[in-house]
Design brief:
This protein is of the alpha+beta class. The protein has an 8-stranded antiparallel barrel with strand order 8-9-15-13-14-11-10-16. A hairpin with a 4-residue loop joins β6 and β7. α7 packs antiparallel against α8. It is rod-shaped and about 120 Å long.
Length: 420
């Protein structure tokens, strides 16, 4: 710690060294802003926020001999370093010279270093009011600590170095600036309280990224409404839901509230079980949909249904054709009751009340056969007959005599249902 203290107060910082220091700081910061590998990492954070520049400022203040010298050296340091950062970036940026539209903000801060450098020098007096001068700096570091802790939680381990840097320098400054033990302890205590407050606020309300990732019939050509289900495979990344947006869009969207970076799948499930699967990569302020897969629900192969006649339940083995497939779809909505009339001494026949697909062929029926007649009538045979029918199925495990006994000679109600 003594070696660190010597860096803050025992260096004869000349004007030439200030200028060289400013150039090095400006060039380094510009490089961190330019190279892709540093993007969105702790190494590029000094491009946008103050934590490292505060360190540079305190270093200059503590190695100045008077308030005036402190103010002027801080001002010159920032006056050289800040525009240099933008100047070096110009050839590499799509904005070109328009980058300098952001400089007025930093120029205002550069001007502000004059009074801040002047007042800050009085922290060297080792008085209690020096701690009052330092406290706003500790608060600013606490704000940055909370910001970067939030980002680190969302994008771990990105920006963790900056988070730790803010915390460590908050503890460090009271120790290296003051010699009075009581002021040191008070300063460290204030730093701890500030970090706890901003840490608690961050943990209590962590950063999220809210966005609409799908629009009904949009660029992904996916169609949906509120009858669909939507969910994430990895629920730790966040939540998704379907909402209707009235203003401007007036349509259904999939709204996402992401809690952290990562790769996962979003499943959009239709009422019939068909699924749209989106591979998605989530980042702090953006997302990328990598691919889209439609998973069609495998159709159930239902080859048996039930028939209830005169309080007797019978199993019917279905034919494999379009007629039976459509009949099964109808049965999924509920049982079908047919008032069947006795006819010809060989069948019970009744109207379905709707049409089914037909593919009639000339066949000879036998006891237990169930057929479609004229597309909208269903016949159950207990004797044989030859005519043009579409086969539906055959009653299982029953003899001709048993079937005749069950059906009797009168009209009957036939109730068809799915096998449970």
């Amino acid at each position: 710690m003594e070696k660190i203290k010597k860096l803050f107060g025992n260096i004869d910082l000349t004007w030439k060294e200030i200028i060289i220091f400013a150039i090095i700081a400006g060039v380094y910061t510009a490089i961190m802003a330019i190279i892709p590998i540093a993007k969105d990492t702790s190494f590029s954070d000094l491009v946008a926020t103050f934590e490292v520049w505060i360190l540079f400022g305190i270093f200059i203040i503590m190695n100045s001999k008077s308030p005036k010298e402190s103010a002027l050296k801080c001002f010159v340091f920032f006056l050289i370093s800040q525009p240099l950062i933008y100047l070096i970036q110009v050839p590499f940026s799509q904005l070109g010279w328009q980058l300098f539209k952001y400089y007025p903000y930093w120029f205002a801060l550069t001007v502000a270093t004059l009074p801040m450098g002047f007042i800050g020098w009085y922290m060297k007096k080792d008085k209690w009011w020096g701690l009052l001068i330092l406290t706003p700096i500790l608060i600013l570091l606490g704000v940055h600590f909370g910001q970067y802790l939030n980002i680190t939680m969302f994008s771990f381990p990105k920006h963790i170095l900056t988070t730790l840097f803010c915390a460590m320098t908050s503890f460090l400054y009271p120790i290296i600036i003051f010699n009075n033990k009581k002021i040191k302890i008070a300063g460290v205590s204030i730093a701890i309280i500030i970090l706890i407050i901003f840490g608690f606020l961050t943990l209590n309300k962590p950063q999220t990224y809210e966005t609409e990732i799908l629009t009904n019939g949009g660029s992904q050509e996916v169609y949906f409404d509120d009858s669909y289900k939507v969910y994430l495979i990895d629920e730790s990344i966040g939540t998704v839901d379907i909402r209707f947006v009235e203003q401007g869009l007036n349509d259904w969207v999939v709204h996402a509230n992401f809690k952290k970076e990562g790769n996962t799948e979003i499943i959009l499930e239709a009422p019939n079980g068909e699924k749209t699967v989106l591979d998605i990569e989530v980042k702090r302020r953006t997302y990328t949909i990598k691919k889209q897969v439609i998973e069609k629900k495998q159709e159930e192969n239902i080859d048996m249904i039930m028939l209830k006649v005169n309080n007797r339940e019978l199993e019917v083995k279905l034919e494999d054709n379009e007629t039976t497939k459509e009949l099964v779809e109808k049965l999924k909505n509920g049982d079908i009751k047919v008032n069947a009339n006795e006819y010809g001494g060989f069948e019970k026949v009744g109207n379905l009340g709707f049409n089914l697909p037909k593919n009639d062929t000339h066949i000879t029926t036998s006891a237990g056969d169930i057929v479609l007649y004229q597309g909208n009538q269903i016949s159950l045979f207990y004797n044989s007959n030859s005519w043009n029918y579409t086969r539906i199925g055959k009653i299982q495990n029953i003899s001709e005599s048993e079937l005749k006994k069950i059906l009797g000679t009168e009209n009957v109600d036939m109730i068809f249902s799915l096998k449970k």
